[in-house]
Amino acid sequence: MTAVLLIARRELGGYFRTMTGYIIAGIMLLAQGLFFNAFVLGQGEMYSAEVLNGYFFYAFGTTVISSLFISMRLIAEERQTGTLTLLASSPIHDWEIVVGKFLSALVFLTAITVASIYIPALILVNGKVSAGHMFAGYLGVLLAGGAALAIGVFGSALGRNQVLAVIFSAIITLFIVVSHFLAKVTDRPLKDMFMSLALYARHFPPFQAGSIHLRDVVYYVMVTYVALFAAVRVMEARRWK
Amino acid sequence: MIEVKGLTKYYGELAAIHDLDFSIDRGEVIGFLGLNGAGKTTALKILGCVLLPTAGDVKVDGIDIARDPHEVRRRIGFLPDTPPLYNDMTVGRYLKFAAELRGVPASEADKAVGDAEEKTATREVHDQPIFSLSHGYRQRVGVAQALVHRPKLLILDEPTSGLDPVQIVEMRSMVRALRGEHTVLLSSHILSEISQTCDRLLVIQRGEIVAQGSEQDLATSLGGGGTIEVEVVGPSTRAIEVARTVTGIGECTVLQETGGVAIVSLQGAPDLRPKVVRALVQNGIDVLRIDRGAARLESIFLRLTQDGKDGTGRPQ
Predict the structure, then answer these.
(1) ipTM of the assembly?
(2) From the candidates B95, B101, B161, which should be mutated to test the interface with A, based on the most A CB atoms within 10 A?
(3) What's this model's pTM, rounded to 2 decimal places?
(4) Structurally, how many domains does chain A consist of?
(5) Backbone φ and ψ of B184, nearest 5°
(6) Which residue range is the domain that position B277 belongs to?
């Protein structure tokens, strides 16, 4: 566990010591603010809960996309620069490397997400929002972001460089985001499978509306676990190549 | 310290190394010598527990690397051909990170970093960010990260790569200073590097060990037995006549004779140098200089690898 924390601390420091972290954070916050202003506040009169619902819809998209960019460097960059050898020749397990890197990215994503709280807080100027709705929405955003980060870590383990890494993870993420469309054109059991896979359509709207369902939490945790497990397997397999 | 039996590594259908057998004793400084693509880096990555072998047994300090790679990794320090440095960190922070990653307790990490910096003369760049370091310092910091946890075995892949002549001399003396405290295995295709730093050589060609032993052993096994170069005052004929009286000295060749000074090459083991000097002086011949024959190791290396020149395309 010490190794996980050591790696996470180093990686987290890396986000703040280089421009990459600030650029991603800046773009994500700017995009959330713009979308909120243009597409949520610009819809005329609405109930506060509907405004908050709309905010979380855009927060989901920007968070998932940002997560792919946050995670693309985690392993692919180390492979490119040769620093992965330092980790690979140290007495630590591959899962500790993967989890340490994932944790650092999750903490960074959480920090950006916390910094965005001022946006829904603006609703309080002319309306009223429930703390429970805010909590559920943000929990959903972080769970979905965590799942996208884990897919990004998998892509980063798979790709030879950061560009390939982000392409791999974007393809996987896009597939599970749009899988509910596939559910519409397929029959059972594929229909059920595609529907239950849907990263947004099936599992996020309840969070968006302020409800927390255990099955949705379990779904995002499972996606995260499977993607990290696959990343560890890729790292182990690379020792044979 | 290291026992290797039948070590083989395939990349697809290509054998990067094939059936390597060698052993290294504790405290030795061993040179892995071979052309580019000969399989040195692959072998070192396996010993460094970065890659897994396709076949064969490797034991480090009696521990099998396939069965317990963690225990082996605790005992080794590995410097790959490109030093694994995080450019965004300072040298001190980076070395502390490397130490803690290798199991040095946080309370002892600062001392371990201090010791490593002292051994590698990197103390003055302790607070400097790594991206701002010169190539020589980057290489030194690379060595420092490999020894910061005081490993029994140090594996250095091309530690002098890209260094200027002054830096090469400094790196050479640094590696020599590590002798005894660590077993050192280093690779290079710079022959003088291997010759002057290592106790023993392992010559690898096309993924196979083609010769091993000291420089002298290799020369003897190839029938050369070595050469001695001597510079004397007076005619070369007289010097050759006297030198031939020394048992073990074979063919003698005049390399240069100008201004009453002759340089003669004598075929024979370098160990015979005191006897040659004694014989010449006792016969009234002044000796200005005596040395091992120049370019000797190069000729050994070329003979061992003469049909391996097409190996450059092989994976490392």
Answers:
(1) 0.87
(2) B101
(3) 0.83
(4) 1
(5) -120, 130
(6) 227-292
